[in-house]
Amino acid sequence: MIINALIVEDSRLARNELKELIKDYPIINLLGEAENVDKGIELINSTKPDLLFLDINMPEKDGFQLLEELDEVPMVIFTTAFDEYAIKSFEYNALDYLMKPISNKRFEQALAKITERLKQQINTNNTQHKLTDNSQIFIKDGEQCWLVKIADISLFEIVGNYTRVYFNDNKPLLYKSLNQVEEKLPINTFFRCNRQQIINTNHIKNVVPWFSGKLKLEMNNGEEVEISRRQSQSFKERLSL
């Protein structure tokens, strides 16, 4: 197993320290480094890394802004000298959080998490630039941010020109249209119920016959979704109902 990684960090000293740590782990293939967000995004889009060592506090744009600009987010390990970000970063579902200066022990622990996550993704099919159940997306709504695994999302719903995303007990807005979202979703997992909503079929609790040949879905999170009459037949065929 080889882990292709990038460093996005404004401090040359911190980049060099990370590279020294990485040298002891042949499993990590360092694809490159960037000193700011804009260059980091260029590198990420061109190299498609498995892992990102990402500084949070950088001039002009911070690490969270970088993640916001990505369609698909690789595994992320935040690196920073400011412990105020520690709790927040785990709320964003970062793979790990390393305080500078980074010790060998903490780096080894982070690497163990990386290899475990990659084992889970080893058989994932990433063809045609589609997201998969193991892919994750970055969502920023106001002051809150999340890195969300696609499999954990139960429902996408139109709100004006944007899309509300339902996962766990959260319902943030994603600043993309539902049609843009649908183009990236794995078709074996997600189903367009009507013009307004797309559901994750793995999160369905119950299917109820509804008026005029329609179906109503009761989701695991308590939400109820009505399948349009046009889509109900497709849904029945898909689930062999």
TrEMBL record:
<dbReference type="InterPro" id="IPR046947">
    <property type="entry name" value="LytR-like"/>
</dbReference>
<feature type="modified residue" description="4-aspartylphosphate">
    <location>
        <position position="55"/>
    </location>
</feature>
<protein>
    <submittedName>
        <fullName>LytR/AlgR family response regulator transcription factor</fullName>
    </submittedName>
</protein>
<dbReference type="Pfam" id="PF00072">
    <property type="entry name" value="Response_reg"/>
</dbReference>
<dbReference type="Pfam" id="PF04397">
    <property type="entry name" value="LytTR"/>
</dbReference>
<feature type="domain" description="HTH LytTR-type">
    <location>
        <begin position="137"/>
        <end position="241"/>
    </location>
</feature>
<dbReference type="InterPro" id="IPR007492">
    <property type="entry name" value="LytTR_DNA-bd_dom"/>
</dbReference>
<dbReference type="InterPro" id="IPR001789">
    <property type="entry name" value="Sig_transdc_resp-reg_receiver"/>
</dbReference>
<feature type="domain" description="Response regulatory">
    <location>
        <begin position="4"/>
        <end position="115"/>
    </location>
</feature>
<dbReference type="InterPro" id="IPR011006">
    <property type="entry name" value="CheY-like_superfamily"/>
</dbReference>
<keyword id="KW-0597">Phosphoprotein</keyword>
